[in-house]
Prior knowledge:
Blueprint: E1 3-11, E2 16-23, E3 28-33, H1 35-53, H2 59-81, E4 100-101, E5 104-111, E6 114-115, E7 130-136, E8 142-148, H3 149-166, E9 170-176, E10 180-188
Parallel strand pairs: 3-4
Antiparallel strand pairs: 1-2, 2-3, 5-6, 5-7, 7-8, 9-10
Helix pairs in contact: 1-2, 1-3, 2-3
Amino acid sequence: MAIKQLNASYVVNEDRILFRFNTQDQAEYRLWLTRRVTLFILVASTHLLTKKLEQVHSPDTAKAVNEFEKAALIEAAKTANAGSTDYESGVQFPLGFDPLLVMDVSCSLTKNGEKVTDENSSKAVDFDDALSIDFLLPGGANLNLNLPNNLMRAMCLLLDQLRIQAGWGEAVLSIKKDVEIEPVVDEVLKKNSPLH
Length: 196
C-alpha cells in the first residue's frame, strides 16, 4: 500500500486525534489516536531514527543530525504548504467508514523488510530506510505500515503539532536498566497545562 497523503486533526470532544491517510488506489484509513498512543509514537520514532543514525555517527552527533533533519522537514513543509492541495478523501474504506480506536501501537526498525527485534539484531545491522509501525485495533486486528523515514518524520511533525494544541505534555524516553532501553511514555506536564 503506497501512502499518498496524511491528515490529522485534534477533536476536542473526543480528546483524541483523528488520523487519516489515503493511498494511491483511493483507499482511506481512519483511526482514533489517544494521548498514550500519540506520545508513544512520538518518543519511539525519535528513539528509533536516532538509533539508526548511530550506526554511522556518535550518539551525540546522531541526535544532532536527527534534530537537523526534523528542522529541515519543518522548513520544507512551510514551502510545500504554500501551494498545498486539500486532503483527498478515499472512495474505499477497507476498515470501514467510521474511525477505529487504536488500542496499542509498536514501532520497530526494519532490515530487508523484516522487523528488527532484540533477538535478531546486532550492532552491525544495516537498517532499511523505513520504520515499521503496527496499530493494534479492536478485536485483535493489526494494521502495519512501513513508513520511509521522511514520511515517518512528517507524520510525527503533524502529531507533535496536535499534541501541543491538545496540551498533552511531552513524551520522554524512560531507561530501564543500564543496557536495556525501552520507549516507555512518561508524560511531563508543564505547570500551565490542564489536567484531564
